[in-house]
Structure prediction request, 576 residues.
Amino acid sequence: MNKIRLYSLLLALAMLLSACAAGGTEESGESSAPSGSEQTEPGPSDATEPNQPQDTALQVMEALNGKLTPSGLDDKYRSYYEIFVYSFYDSDGDGVGDLQGVIEKLDYINDGDPDTNTDLGATGIWLMPVNPSPTYHKYDVKDYTDIDPEYGTLDDFKALLDACHERGIRVIMDLVMNHTSSQHPWFTKAVEYLKTLEPGAEPDLTACPYVGYYNFSREKKSATSYQVEGTEWYYEAPFWSEMPDLDLSCVAVRSELATIAEYWLDFGVDGFRLDAAKEFYSGDPESNIAFLSWFNGVVKEKNPDAYIVAEVWNDLNTYASYYRSGIDSVFNFSFGDSNGTIAKVVKGSSPASAYGAAIENAQAAFAAASDTYIDAPFYTNHDMGRSAGYYPGDYTENQVKLALALNLTMSGASFTYYGEELGMKGAGKDENKRAPMYWSEDPEAPGMTDGPKDMGTVNMIFESQDRQAENGNSILNFTIEALKIRNSIPAVSHGVADMVESLSTDKVCVLTKTFDNESVTLVYNISPEPQTVDVSSLDLKSVTAALVTTAESPTLNNGKLTLPMYSVAVLSNTNI
Ligand SMILES: [Ca+2]
Ligand SMILES: [Ca+2]
Ligand SMILES: [Ca+2]
Prediction:
């Protein structure tokens, strides 16, 4: 038994004893009715009342969040789940995850039924690359209009899109435009042609247009220039010799990319995650923004409702400027990773108020670049060590949960990397960050993948998905509740945030968020002790929703809000 559960148990016992001492005769709703009893009226001590002792954090959360219903908004402010298909779920027993496997696990991602509470409730999926590729990660594409045979077929992909759309899930695919695989026919044909040239001869683009697709030159321009074997020609490949960089100024390349985007939009894809946008023109953000502006025009002309989010792994002010391109979203990198705002605040190396200040700062930077920006908050992704490794010490599980809450209560389109909802481990080399989804402790259980070949040993510290589903104190159930709040309260997912500075401290952050004339106040206790906040100045009527990491409930009495350790309360200024 871990410390938290022991603590919860002791607390429940203490409250039971004090209830007995006070002459209370309350019984829990579940045990009061013998099985087969005709009596269905709940007793006076309905266990769903807030402020009652509960057995699990989930019971506390369900007591408050159980009355929430999906907002019904069907816009671009979605809750995305990032899937690495290779390591997700294997439908045919070859050890490699596949598209049919994703279809089989849609009931886990979102079962399409708002009345059930067993699914994550994600409303979007970001699929990491699914196009044919020689590598396990598939970020080097050799055919942009097909599906990698390891993952399935175009028919499988169509079936996945249809099944997702039936459940209200939109699907965006990773589009890798900075480079191709060295095995892409564009590159192999260009190389073949260059090998036929006499030394000193100029290439004839009418004989081989593909020479114009890449950055070929006779000089070795940088440490990442590679020689075409047996020729005087070099090509640029900043990431890896087998990922030659496309020349995105080439009119023919742009025409190819437009055709590819249109092809997938026609196919039913709902948008794109654009890989490595910072490197389109390395060191030249203005050219990257101009390229994105062009690409956004191509996509939106085809489908104005399509969603585009770009990866610009840079400092806040630089990636904020990319909103000038008109694309919907740019990943909000400054909040993610082990040294980002969320982890620093949760570790206590930054004050809790730094979270609110960073949100206000990011909002201002984005709004200065675009009035239609949609923030894309995330916390970890496939390039980062997983969260469970960020918090050594006595409160790892509480901190992993609270970090998820800080991410998932941010406005915009949120992104959750697969397995983070379980607190999976994985750091160091990239393969370890992309380990098999931990469905079961049994590596032979149905659907379990083998993971990337060069993956090291990754030792999980939290339970597998099948166990967490049954555990009322699990990270999984916490995440489900966080997503429920996100999907149910538009001010949480869409609101403009304003930190209440007079109440925000090193341990508590108080944010008011407003959307469409509705306001909520979010109070975060980012500390291992209970905190009491005098919110009387805010005229709040009730605790609308909460995320707790122990089986204790927040209480609001006479304008004083008491929050248990590492927890979040959502307060409303109306009686509900
Ligand atoms: Ca498979
Ligand atoms: Ca459901
Ligand atoms: Ca480039």
